[in-house]
Amino acid sequence: MSVMDAVTITKPAGQPRTELSPKPSLIGLSREEMGNALRQRGVADKQVKMRVSQLWNWIYVRGISDFDQMVNIAKDMREMLKQHFTIARPEIVEEQVSNDGTRKWLLRFPPRGAGRPVEVETVYIPEEGRGTLCISSQVGCSLTCSFCHTGTQRLVRNLTAEEILSQLLLARDRLGDFPDRDIPLGAMVPSEGRKVSNIVMMGMGEPLYNFDAVKQALLIATDGDGLSLSKRRVTLSTSGVVPEIFRTGEEIGVMLAISLHAVRDDLRDILVPINKKYPLKELIEACRAYPGLSNARRITFEYVMLKDVNDSLEDAKGLIQLLKGVPAKINLIPFNPWPGTNYQCSDWAQIEKFADFINSAGYASPIRTPRGRDILAACGQLKSESERMRKTERLAFEAMMIANHGVDD
Ligand code: SF4
Question: Which candidate, 137, 143, 110, places its Cα nearest to that of 121?
Protein backbone atom coordinates (compact mmCIF):
# COMPACT_ATOMS: atom_id res chain seq x y z
CA MET A 1 0.00 0.00 0.00
CA SER A 2 1.31 3.48 -0.71
CA VAL A 3 0.85 6.67 1.25
CA MET A 4 -1.68 7.63 -1.41
CA ASP A 5 -3.91 4.84 -0.10
CA ALA A 6 -4.73 6.60 3.15
CA VAL A 7 -8.51 7.01 3.28
CA THR A 8 -9.93 10.50 3.52
CA ILE A 9 -13.61 10.96 4.22
CA THR A 10 -14.76 14.52 3.94
CA LYS A 11 -17.64 15.03 6.33
CA PRO A 12 -18.83 11.50 7.21
CA ALA A 13 -22.58 10.94 6.75
CA GLY A 14 -24.94 11.96 9.54
CA GLN A 15 -22.56 14.43 11.16
CA PRO A 16 -23.99 17.78 12.31
CA ARG A 17 -23.13 21.08 10.68
CA THR A 18 -21.67 23.79 12.88
CA GLU A 19 -24.43 25.96 14.36
CA LEU A 20 -23.64 29.65 14.23
CA SER A 21 -25.22 30.54 17.55
CA PRO A 22 -25.16 27.36 19.56
CA LYS A 23 -26.97 26.88 22.83
CA PRO A 24 -24.76 26.41 25.86
CA SER A 25 -23.38 22.89 26.09
CA LEU A 26 -23.67 20.69 29.17
CA ILE A 27 -20.44 18.96 28.14
CA GLY A 28 -17.42 20.16 30.09
CA LEU A 29 -19.37 21.60 33.03
CA SER A 30 -18.47 20.45 36.52
CA ARG A 31 -21.32 18.82 38.47
CA GLU A 32 -21.80 22.05 40.38
CA GLU A 33 -21.97 24.13 37.19
CA MET A 34 -24.39 21.68 35.61
CA GLY A 35 -26.58 21.86 38.72
CA ASN A 36 -26.59 25.67 38.59
CA ALA A 37 -27.49 25.60 34.87
CA LEU A 38 -30.46 23.34 35.65
CA ARG A 39 -31.57 25.52 38.60
CA GLN A 40 -31.57 28.58 36.35
CA ARG A 41 -33.98 26.73 34.07
CA GLY A 42 -36.38 26.00 36.88
CA VAL A 43 -35.32 22.54 38.09
CA ALA A 44 -36.23 22.30 41.78
CA ASP A 45 -33.34 22.23 44.27
CA LYS A 46 -34.30 18.81 45.64
CA GLN A 47 -34.17 17.29 42.12
CA VAL A 48 -30.91 18.84 40.97
CA LYS A 49 -28.52 16.24 42.37
CA MET A 50 -30.44 13.35 40.83
CA ARG A 51 -30.79 15.10 37.44
CA VAL A 52 -27.07 15.90 37.33
CA SER A 53 -26.24 12.30 38.09
CA GLN A 54 -28.60 11.06 35.33
CA LEU A 55 -27.18 13.50 32.79
CA TRP A 56 -23.60 12.64 33.78
CA ASN A 57 -24.30 8.96 33.18
CA TRP A 58 -25.96 9.54 29.81
CA ILE A 59 -23.31 11.93 28.54
CA TYR A 60 -20.12 10.31 29.81
CA VAL A 61 -20.88 6.62 30.43
CA ARG A 62 -23.21 5.99 27.49
CA GLY A 63 -21.96 8.71 25.15
CA ILE A 64 -25.45 9.94 24.25
CA SER A 65 -25.53 13.10 22.12
CA ASP A 66 -29.32 13.47 21.85
CA PHE A 67 -31.56 14.34 24.82
CA ASP A 68 -34.40 12.26 23.33
CA GLN A 69 -32.47 9.07 24.09
CA MET A 70 -32.45 9.79 27.83
CA VAL A 71 -35.36 7.49 28.56
CA ASN A 72 -35.31 7.77 32.35
CA ILE A 73 -35.87 11.52 32.15
CA ALA A 74 -39.48 12.72 31.80
CA LYS A 75 -40.50 14.06 28.40
CA ASP A 76 -41.20 17.62 29.56
CA MET A 77 -37.76 17.78 31.19
CA ARG A 78 -36.15 16.50 27.98
CA GLU A 79 -38.01 19.21 26.04
CA MET A 80 -36.69 21.85 28.44
CA LEU A 81 -33.15 20.49 28.04
CA LYS A 82 -33.45 20.51 24.25
CA GLN A 83 -34.75 24.04 24.25
CA HIS A 84 -31.95 25.51 26.37
CA PHE A 85 -28.90 23.29 26.06
CA THR A 86 -26.94 21.14 23.66
CA ILE A 87 -24.82 18.00 23.99
CA ALA A 88 -24.00 17.84 20.29
CA ARG A 89 -20.59 16.87 18.98
CA PRO A 90 -18.44 19.19 16.87
CA GLU A 91 -18.70 19.01 13.10
CA ILE A 92 -16.27 16.62 11.43
CA VAL A 93 -14.81 18.49 8.48
CA GLU A 94 -12.55 15.63 7.49
CA GLU A 95 -11.65 12.17 8.76
CA GLN A 96 -8.48 10.50 7.54
CA VAL A 97 -7.36 6.95 8.18
CA SER A 98 -3.67 6.24 7.69
CA ASN A 99 -2.47 2.98 6.21
CA ASP A 100 -1.09 2.15 9.70
CA GLY A 101 -4.54 2.58 11.30
CA THR A 102 -3.88 6.03 12.76
CA ARG A 103 -6.92 8.30 12.42
CA LYS A 104 -6.99 12.05 12.24
CA TRP A 105 -10.07 14.21 12.54
CA LEU A 106 -10.33 17.83 11.53
CA LEU A 107 -13.06 19.22 13.77
CA ARG A 108 -14.94 22.50 13.55
CA PHE A 109 -16.24 24.24 16.66
CA PRO A 110 -18.83 27.02 16.68
CA PRO A 111 -17.80 30.63 17.26
CA ARG A 112 -17.43 31.91 20.81
CA GLY A 113 -18.85 35.40 21.25
CA ALA A 114 -17.95 37.57 18.30
CA GLY A 115 -15.35 35.10 16.99
CA ARG A 116 -15.47 32.76 14.01
CA PRO A 117 -15.78 28.95 13.90
CA VAL A 118 -12.41 27.33 14.57
CA GLU A 119 -10.84 24.06 13.51
CA VAL A 120 -8.52 21.71 15.37
CA GLU A 121 -7.04 18.29 14.78
CA THR A 122 -7.30 15.21 16.99
CA VAL A 123 -5.37 12.01 16.36
CA TYR A 124 -6.02 8.40 17.43
CA ILE A 125 -3.09 5.97 17.48
CA PRO A 126 -4.00 2.28 17.89
CA GLU A 127 -1.27 0.04 19.32
CA GLU A 128 -1.02 -3.50 20.60
CA GLY A 129 -3.21 -3.63 23.72
CA ARG A 130 -3.93 0.09 23.89
CA GLY A 131 -5.10 3.12 21.96
CA THR A 132 -3.95 6.67 22.53
CA LEU A 133 -5.85 9.82 21.68
CA CYS A 134 -3.79 12.94 21.11
CA ILE A 135 -5.90 15.96 22.05
CA SER A 136 -5.47 19.64 21.18
CA SER A 137 -5.75 22.40 23.79
CA GLN A 138 -5.52 25.52 21.63
CA VAL A 139 -6.27 26.57 18.06
CA GLY A 140 -2.77 27.17 16.75
CA CYS A 141 -0.01 27.99 19.21
CA SER A 142 1.68 31.14 20.48
CA LEU A 143 5.00 29.37 20.88
CA THR A 144 7.16 28.92 17.84
CA CYS A 145 9.12 25.72 18.36
CA SER A 146 11.14 25.67 15.17
CA PHE A 147 10.71 21.93 14.44
CA CYS A 148 6.92 21.96 14.89
CA HIS A 149 4.35 22.45 12.14
CA THR A 150 1.68 23.71 14.56
CA GLY A 151 4.13 26.40 15.65
CA THR A 152 3.82 27.99 12.20
CA GLN A 153 0.09 28.57 12.79
CA ARG A 154 -0.63 31.64 14.88
CA LEU A 155 -2.68 31.27 18.04
CA VAL A 156 -6.36 31.87 17.33
CA ARG A 157 -7.77 31.10 20.78
CA ASN A 158 -7.83 28.69 23.70
CA LEU A 159 -10.25 25.78 23.51
CA THR A 160 -12.93 25.55 26.18
CA ALA A 161 -13.25 22.54 28.52
CA GLU A 162 -16.24 21.46 26.40
CA GLU A 163 -14.17 21.56 23.20
CA ILE A 164 -11.28 19.65 24.77
CA LEU A 165 -13.58 16.95 26.13
CA SER A 166 -15.64 16.79 22.93
CA GLN A 167 -12.55 15.53 21.09
CA LEU A 168 -12.57 12.48 23.36
CA LEU A 169 -16.34 11.95 23.07
CA LEU A 170 -16.24 12.24 19.30
CA ALA A 171 -13.31 9.83 18.97
CA ARG A 172 -15.17 7.28 21.10
CA ASP A 173 -18.27 7.73 18.90
CA ARG A 174 -16.34 7.20 15.71
CA LEU A 175 -14.41 4.22 17.08
CA GLY A 176 -17.53 2.54 18.50
CA ASP A 177 -15.96 2.91 21.92
CA PHE A 178 -19.05 3.63 23.97
CA PRO A 179 -20.61 0.53 25.48
CA ASP A 180 -23.76 -1.00 24.18
CA ARG A 181 -26.46 1.56 24.91
CA ASP A 182 -28.70 -1.22 26.20
CA ILE A 183 -26.61 -1.81 29.34
CA PRO A 184 -28.67 -1.42 32.53
CA LEU A 185 -29.17 2.15 33.62
CA GLY A 186 -26.58 3.33 36.10
CA ALA A 187 -24.16 0.51 35.28
CA MET A 188 -20.49 1.37 35.56
CA VAL A 189 -18.36 0.75 32.53
CA PRO A 190 -14.88 -0.63 33.14
CA SER A 191 -12.05 1.56 31.88
CA GLU A 192 -10.17 -1.55 30.74
CA GLY A 193 -10.70 -2.92 27.26
CA ARG A 194 -11.67 0.41 25.70
CA LYS A 195 -10.29 1.51 22.34
CA VAL A 196 -9.22 4.86 23.78
CA SER A 197 -7.29 3.69 26.82
CA ASN A 198 -4.84 6.60 27.05
CA ILE A 199 -4.93 10.29 26.31
CA VAL A 200 -2.08 12.69 25.72
CA MET A 201 -2.40 16.46 25.72
CA MET A 202 0.12 16.73 22.92
CA GLY A 203 -1.96 18.00 20.02
CA MET A 204 -2.11 21.60 18.91
CA GLY A 205 -1.19 24.19 21.51
CA GLU A 206 0.53 24.55 24.87
CA PRO A 207 -1.87 23.05 27.45
CA LEU A 208 -0.38 25.00 30.36
CA TYR A 209 -1.27 28.28 28.62
CA ASN A 210 -4.89 27.11 28.92
CA PHE A 211 -4.61 25.69 32.42
CA ASP A 212 -8.15 26.10 33.75
CA ALA A 213 -9.96 24.58 30.75
CA VAL A 214 -7.44 21.72 30.48
CA LYS A 215 -7.75 21.01 34.20
CA GLN A 216 -11.54 20.94 34.08
CA ALA A 217 -11.60 18.68 31.00
CA LEU A 218 -9.05 16.24 32.43
CA LEU A 219 -10.81 16.03 35.79
CA ILE A 220 -14.01 15.09 33.95
CA ALA A 221 -12.18 12.60 31.70
CA THR A 222 -10.76 10.88 34.79
CA ASP A 223 -13.98 11.01 36.86
CA GLY A 224 -14.69 7.50 38.10
CA ASP A 225 -18.46 7.83 37.56
CA GLY A 226 -18.04 8.91 33.95
CA LEU A 227 -15.36 8.43 31.33
CA SER A 228 -13.19 6.78 34.00
CA LEU A 229 -9.76 7.13 32.44
CA SER A 230 -6.99 6.35 34.89
CA LYS A 231 -4.83 9.38 35.75
CA ARG A 232 -1.82 7.19 35.09
CA ARG A 233 -3.00 6.88 31.50
CA VAL A 234 -3.35 10.60 30.95
CA THR A 235 -0.24 12.57 30.04
CA LEU A 236 0.05 16.32 29.77
CA SER A 237 2.94 17.52 27.66
CA THR A 238 4.40 20.99 28.11
CA SER A 239 7.15 22.86 26.34
CA GLY A 240 8.20 24.08 29.80
CA VAL A 241 5.78 26.59 31.35
CA VAL A 242 7.63 26.35 34.65
CA PRO A 243 5.21 28.27 36.93
CA GLU A 244 2.32 25.90 36.09
CA ILE A 245 4.17 22.59 36.42
CA PHE A 246 3.71 22.13 40.17
CA ARG A 247 -0.01 22.99 39.93
CA THR A 248 -0.41 20.40 37.20
CA GLY A 249 0.70 17.65 39.56
CA GLU A 250 -1.12 18.99 42.55
CA GLU A 251 -4.45 20.01 40.99
CA ILE A 252 -4.78 17.57 38.07
CA GLY A 253 -2.51 14.71 39.14
CA VAL A 254 -1.79 13.35 35.67
CA MET A 255 1.49 12.15 34.21
CA LEU A 256 3.87 14.83 32.95
CA ALA A 257 5.85 15.00 29.73
CA ILE A 258 8.35 17.68 28.80
CA SER A 259 9.14 18.70 25.22
CA LEU A 260 12.87 18.87 25.88
CA HIS A 261 14.66 18.41 22.52
CA ALA A 262 17.95 20.03 23.57
CA VAL A 263 20.29 19.87 26.54
CA ARG A 264 22.02 23.24 26.08
CA ASP A 265 20.26 26.56 26.57
CA ASP A 266 21.74 28.07 23.39
CA LEU A 267 20.24 25.29 21.24
CA ARG A 268 16.97 25.00 23.19
CA ASP A 269 16.47 28.76 22.82
CA ILE A 270 16.17 28.05 19.08
CA LEU A 271 14.24 24.76 19.10
CA VAL A 272 11.86 25.61 21.97
CA PRO A 273 12.00 29.40 22.35
CA ILE A 274 10.09 29.44 25.66
CA ASN A 275 13.46 28.32 27.01
CA LYS A 276 14.59 31.97 26.89
CA LYS A 277 11.98 32.68 29.57
CA TYR A 278 12.34 29.46 31.56
CA PRO A 279 15.82 28.03 30.98
CA LEU A 280 16.82 24.42 31.49
CA LYS A 281 17.97 24.82 35.10
CA GLU A 282 14.57 26.15 36.20
CA LEU A 283 12.75 23.57 34.12
CA ILE A 284 14.61 20.63 35.62
CA GLU A 285 14.14 22.03 39.14
CA ALA A 286 10.38 22.22 38.51
CA CYS A 287 10.47 18.60 37.30
CA ARG A 288 12.26 17.44 40.45
CA ALA A 289 9.50 19.05 42.52
CA TYR A 290 6.66 17.48 40.53
CA PRO A 291 4.13 16.07 43.03
CA GLY A 292 4.01 12.28 43.19
CA LEU A 293 7.24 11.80 41.23
CA SER A 294 8.77 8.36 41.81
CA ASN A 295 10.31 5.53 39.86
CA ALA A 296 6.81 4.23 39.28
CA ARG A 297 5.60 7.68 38.14
CA ARG A 298 8.36 8.97 35.95
CA ILE A 299 8.41 12.10 33.81
CA THR A 300 8.64 11.51 30.08
CA PHE A 301 11.13 13.70 28.25
CA GLU A 302 10.38 14.04 24.55
CA TYR A 303 13.44 14.39 22.36
CA VAL A 304 13.01 14.89 18.62
CA MET A 305 15.94 13.54 16.60
CA LEU A 306 17.19 16.23 14.23
CA LYS A 307 20.07 15.38 11.94
CA ASP A 308 23.30 17.20 12.86
CA VAL A 309 21.42 19.47 15.26
CA ASN A 310 20.89 17.60 18.56
CA ASP A 311 21.75 13.98 17.77
CA SER A 312 25.45 13.64 18.66
CA LEU A 313 26.79 11.41 21.41
CA GLU A 314 27.87 14.64 23.17
CA ASP A 315 24.17 15.55 23.29
CA ALA A 316 23.33 12.10 24.65
CA LYS A 317 25.95 12.54 27.38
CA GLY A 318 24.56 16.00 28.18
CA LEU A 319 21.07 14.52 28.43
CA ILE A 320 22.14 11.99 31.03
CA GLN A 321 23.89 14.67 33.06
CA LEU A 322 20.92 17.01 32.85
CA LEU A 323 18.42 14.40 34.05
CA LYS A 324 20.62 12.96 36.80
CA GLY A 325 18.44 11.96 39.74
CA VAL A 326 15.13 12.69 37.97
CA PRO A 327 12.93 9.59 37.59
CA ALA A 328 12.69 9.81 33.82
CA LYS A 329 11.87 8.05 30.61
CA ILE A 330 13.19 9.49 27.37
CA ASN A 331 11.09 9.20 24.23
CA LEU A 332 13.20 9.55 21.12
CA ILE A 333 11.06 10.84 18.26
CA PRO A 334 12.37 10.52 14.72
CA PHE A 335 11.62 13.95 13.21
CA ASN A 336 8.43 13.97 11.18
CA PRO A 337 8.93 16.25 8.20
CA TRP A 338 6.38 18.81 7.08
CA PRO A 339 6.27 21.11 4.06
CA GLY A 340 8.63 24.04 4.37
CA THR A 341 10.82 22.74 7.20
CA ASN A 342 14.60 22.95 6.97
CA TYR A 343 15.17 20.13 9.47
CA GLN A 344 15.86 16.54 8.56
CA CYS A 345 15.37 13.39 10.55
CA SER A 346 18.56 11.87 11.99
CA ASP A 347 19.86 8.76 10.26
CA TRP A 348 18.43 5.59 11.75
CA ALA A 349 21.86 4.28 12.75
CA GLN A 350 22.53 7.51 14.67
CA ILE A 351 19.18 7.30 16.46
CA GLU A 352 20.01 3.76 17.54
CA LYS A 353 23.47 4.77 18.76
CA PHE A 354 21.94 7.63 20.71
CA ALA A 355 19.32 5.30 22.22
CA ASP A 356 21.93 2.68 23.15
CA PHE A 357 24.04 5.28 24.91
CA ILE A 358 21.12 6.47 27.02
CA ASN A 359 19.93 2.94 27.68
CA SER A 360 23.32 1.91 28.96
CA ALA A 361 23.10 4.79 31.46
CA GLY A 362 19.95 3.15 32.84
CA TYR A 363 17.22 5.23 31.18
CA ALA A 364 14.40 3.67 29.22
CA SER A 365 14.63 5.35 25.85
CA PRO A 366 12.15 3.90 23.38
CA ILE A 367 12.37 5.13 19.81
CA ARG A 368 8.86 6.15 18.97
CA THR A 369 7.74 4.57 15.72
CA PRO A 370 6.43 7.33 13.47
CA ARG A 371 2.67 6.93 13.11
CA GLY A 372 0.28 8.46 10.62
CA ARG A 373 2.99 10.33 8.71
CA ASP A 374 1.06 9.87 5.46
CA ILE A 375 -1.87 11.91 6.82
CA LEU A 376 0.35 14.45 8.65
CA ALA A 377 -0.88 13.08 11.97
CA ALA A 378 2.52 12.38 13.49
CA CYS A 379 4.12 14.36 16.30
CA GLY A 380 4.68 18.00 15.45
CA GLN A 381 2.83 17.75 12.14
CA LEU A 382 -0.63 18.98 13.18
CA LYS A 383 -1.99 22.10 11.61
CA SER A 384 -5.65 22.81 11.08
CA GLU A 385 -7.68 23.40 7.96
CA SER A 386 -7.74 27.13 8.51
CA GLU A 387 -4.13 27.22 7.43
CA ARG A 388 -3.70 23.87 5.80
CA MET A 389 -1.71 22.98 2.74
CA ARG A 390 -3.18 23.66 -0.63
CA LYS A 391 -3.80 20.51 -2.66
CA THR A 392 -0.75 21.06 -4.86
CA GLU A 393 1.49 21.40 -1.79
CA ARG A 394 0.00 18.23 -0.34
CA LEU A 395 0.66 16.20 -3.49
CA ALA A 396 4.24 17.48 -3.64
CA PHE A 397 4.68 16.55 0.03
CA GLU A 398 3.28 13.06 -0.48
CA ALA A 399 5.64 12.55 -3.41
CA MET A 400 8.54 13.64 -1.21
CA MET A 401 7.47 11.18 1.52
CA ILE A 402 7.44 8.30 -0.97
CA ALA A 403 10.86 9.29 -2.30
CA ASN A 404 12.38 9.68 1.18
CA HIS A 405 10.83 6.80 3.02
CA GLY A 406 10.09 4.16 0.40
CA VAL A 407 6.73 3.45 1.96
CA ASP A 408 5.39 1.46 -1.00
CA ASP A 409 5.29 -2.23 -0.19
S1 SF4 B 1 5.75 21.88 20.06
FE2 SF4 B 1 3.86 22.36 21.19
S3 SF4 B 1 4.34 24.31 22.21
FE4 SF4 B 1 5.87 24.09 20.57
S5 SF4 B 1 4.96 25.16 18.79
FE6 SF4 B 1 4.37 22.99 18.64
S7 SF4 B 1 2.34 22.90 19.61
FE8 SF4 B 1 3.31 24.83 20.28
Answer: 137
Q: Is 381 in the pocket of ligand 1 (CB under 6 A)?
A: no
Alpha carbon of 369 to ligand 1 centroid (Å): 20
Cβ–ligand 1 distance for 239 under 6 Å, the answer yes
Ligand 1 atom index nearest CA of 148: 6
Instruction: Evaluate: CB of 207 within 6 angstroms of ligand 1.
Output: no
Q: What is the residue-level pLDDT of the chain in tens, covering all 409 positions?
A: 333 346 676 667 666 666 666 799 999 999 999 999 999 999 999 999 999 999 999 999 999 999 999 999 999 999 999 999 999 999 999 999 988 899 999 999 998 877 789 999 999 999 988 999 999 999 999 998 999 988 788 899 999 999 999 999 999 999 999 876 666 655 555 556 789 999 999 999 999 999 999 999 999 999 999 999 999 999 999 999 999 999 999 999 999 999 999 999 999 999 999 999 999 999 999 999 999 999 999 999 999 999 999 999 999 999 999 999 999 999 999 998 888 899 999 999 999 999 999 999 999 888 887 777 766 666 566 666 445 444 444 444 444 443 433 332 2
Clarify whether 287 is annotated catalytic.
no
Angle at 372 between CA 141 and CA 134, to 5 degrees: 45
Residue 265 main-chain phi, psi, to 5 deg:
-60, -40
Question: Would you tell me how many other CB atoms lie within 10 Å of the CB of residue 186?
Answer: 11
148 is in an annotated binding site: yes
Q: By 3-state DSSP, what share of the chain in percent is helix, strand and coil, each rounded to 5?
A: 40, 20, 45
Structural domains of the chain ordered from first start: 4-11+90-405 (3.20.20.70), 31-84 (1.10.150)
Our answer on whether the CB atom of 203 is closer than 6 Å to any ligand 1 atom is no
Give me the catalytic one of 94, 121, 162, 163: 121
151 C-beta closer than 6 A to ligand 1:
yes
CA of 41 to the centre of ligand 1 (A): 41
Ligand 1, atom nearest to 203 Cα: 7
Per DSSP, helices labelled H in 138-249 are 161-175, 211-221, 242-247
